[in-house]
Design brief:
Blueprint lengths: L1 H11 L8 H9 L1 E4 L25 H4 L5 H5 L5 E3 L7 E4 L5 E5 L8 H21 L15 E8 L8 E2 L9 H15 L2 H18 L1 H17 L14 E7 L18 E8 L8 E3 L4 E3 L6 E4 L6 E3 L7 E8 L2 H8 L5 H7 L2 H19 L5 H5 L6 H5 L14 H9 L1
Helix pairs in contact: 2-7, 5-6, 5-7, 7-8
């Protein structure tokens, strides 16, 4: 471990301006849980490679037991991960790729101080809910029986270009809409709570998914520069959008957020007053994992690809969720030269169309290479540069397995 720590610290010195000290400390303290059964190449990706495949569904038998912790960890045979919500844990697939991160709390933060941040965020969410009005249809969404608000910007749903998501904030009359938007503005300007949570989850993304983080960062900066009306929710976030589930009892049946970027991560923070031993667990179905998910803790994972759900809490409890993500359509728009597919095709030559189709076929293979390898990170290689120098970039999940000689050659460089 001492050698690993020195390697990480030395490599971090080469990334001044890209990796904060907190991100470095996240890696130093992390432990890994292996899920050898997970082959990421088999996850349901759309034909374009930008988003998940919404046609994928769980068998009916599993859907009937999604609410029952004892059945999932008993007869169904899912593995139970008794996470304390404090330490950092990375979940690693069968090719050493970091699939998900259980973030815990910031390194060096006293538990009581972080609890104050969490309480402040919860207070801001409760105030936003109290100051808002919701139409009846807004109190029950496709993700569960709770009210929510989405803000930031996205692409899709018939829009010809990226749009601010606050157009979804509705109300009965202009005054109600204005009041609801004002409530959201107060929520996202909550420095000591919501913004602190966003900052920490961005640090986690930077640390454990550095290649993807930098691509998100570049994309958001370019999009905001092209369209100034696309304002970030928070000054330094790389996520384009966020949703707050107000509850008061937020839990969701198994689903995928297939409109999000396929190989990207969403950041899910649990908040509220509930007993995490009795409910609120995060279930990652493709990984066959049931994860204890205490209030105040954050998890990052590819929500467009992995079917996930949260278990019900007790009737007298409260649970909120703060979720940050980016639409896959934004990356497609950017790759098209800030055009829709239809507009791009109108001016494309036959050769350009062929090149584009070839790029689509390669996209998922390329995307797999952007996931950080756990052993690369352990040895301080944030960007996977030694892997490139060793000629191992093409050794993806879609090709033959890397040999022990390949791995040894990489680690010895």
């Amino acid at each position: 471990m001492q050698r690993t720590s020195r390697a990480i610290e030395a490599a971090a010195r080469d990334h001044v301006g890209e990796l904060k000290k907190r991100a470095i400390e996240n890696a130093l303290r992390a432990t890994a849980i292996a899920v050898d059964s997970l082959d990421m190449a088999s996850l349901p990706v759309s034909a374009t490679g930008w988003t998940g495949n919404p046609k994928f569904q769980l068998p009916g038998g599993l859907l009937r037991v999604w609410r029952a912790l004892d059945l999932l960890t008993g007869s169904v045979g899912f593995r139970f991960l008794d996470w304390d919500g404090i330490t950092s844990v990375v979940i690693v697939g069968c090719r050493d790729r970091i699939v998900a991160v259980l973030g815990g709390i910031p390194p060096g933060a006293a538990e009581d101080k972080w609890s104050s941040v969490v309480r402040d965020a919860e207070g801001a969410i409760e105030a936003c809910y109290a100051q808002s009005t919701f139409e009846e249809k807004e109190r029950e969404g496709r993700r569960g029986e709770f009210a929510s608000r989405t803000f930031g910007f996205g692409f899709g749903f018939g829009n010809g270009r990226p749009k601010p998501m606050n157009y979804k904030i509705s109300g009965s009359g202009k005054q109600a809409v204005a009041k609801n938007k004002e409530a959201v503005d107060k929520l996202i300007s909550n420095d000591d709570g919501i913004r602190a949570l966003s900052g920490f989850t961005n640090d986690l993304f930077n640390c454990f998914g550095h290649k993807l983080y930098m691509e998100y960062k570049d994309a958001v900066e370019e999009l905001v520069e092209k369209q100034p009306e696309l304002a970030r929710n928070f000054p330094s976030t790389v996520f384009a959008a966020a949703t707050v589930n107000f509850g008061p009892r937020s839990f969701s049946p198994p689903h995928m957020d297939s409109d999000n970027r396929a190989d990207g991560w969403c950041a899910d923070t649990a908040l509220g007053n509930f007993d995490p031993d009795k409910g609120g667990h995060l279930v990652l179905w493709d990984l066959q994992l049931v994860i204890r998910f205490p209030p105040g803790s954050s998890v990052l994972f590819p929500s467009a690809l992995i079917t996930h759900s949260t278990l019900p809490i007790q009737p007298h409890e409260t649970r909120y969720a703060f979720i940050q993500y980016t639409s896959g359509g934004l990356f497609r728009w950017r790759a098209n030269g800030f055009k829709t597919d239809a507009d791009w095709l109108k001016k494309a030559s036959p050769a350009e169309v062929l090149d584009r189709e070839a790029a689509r076929r390669r996209r998922w293979k390329t995307a797999l290479q952007k996931f950080t390898r756990w052993n690369d990170l352990r040895f301080g290689d944030w960007k996977g540069l030694r892997r490139s120098k060793a000629g191992l970039d093409d050794c993806s999940d879609l090709l033959e397995l890397e040999s022990e000689e390949d791995v040894k050659r990489l680690r010895d460089r």
